[in-house]
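Anyone else keep sequences and structure tokens together like this?

Example one:
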Amino acid sequence: MAGTAVYFLKDGALHPVERSAAGITSPTEAVRALLTGPSPEDRKQGLTSALPPLTGTLETVLAKVTATPNAPGRLRVTLPYDPTTLTPLALGQLTCTASATALVELTGTGHTTPATHCSDYAVRHPVSYDQPG
């Protein structure tokens, strides 16, 4: 496996960034990597995120993040905040990072978004460069 795509933003559009497969073995881990934000190398490449900053200790917050199948071809991602307040770009980041093929439903603090597919969001070509670590 070459790696997993984590979706950040560049020039106002979703931009997948390949991550080394080490440490990212599931949709849950991919979403957790996304929530930690762009790395210094990502920022040098002009990548940003539309996701709100995490509050509290990183370990505690990320432990609450899960991505689990809830029906065939569907994935439910549990977040530490209300996903219905997020911008379309932020929703796209989460949806595409969780799965390029499944319908993804985002839930958190008692609120749930309608299920969407990564193809519902405009995505640019992948960015590839070696990540330290």
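And example two:
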Amino acid sequence: MQNHWVVDLSFDEDESRTSCTASLSGFSAPGAQGTGEARRNPTDDGDSVIGEELAAARACHDLAHQLVGRAAAGIEGHTHVPAHLAL
């Protein structure tokens, strides 16, 4: 059986910051969520794409770390030995 997981990126912006939530969904997906934020320097010109890219990268990074933590916990649950996993 082939699993298919989807990462949905949702953004919230104001004049100085962009936040992003990366939500994982799909059959047998763990339902994890990562968050990330980007802040604009007040002296910089506004460019929402840059803020969205940085906030999305940070949210996906957070999500990835959570998934590695879950995988390590699963390995430790089976082996009863500390798991040391890296991205």
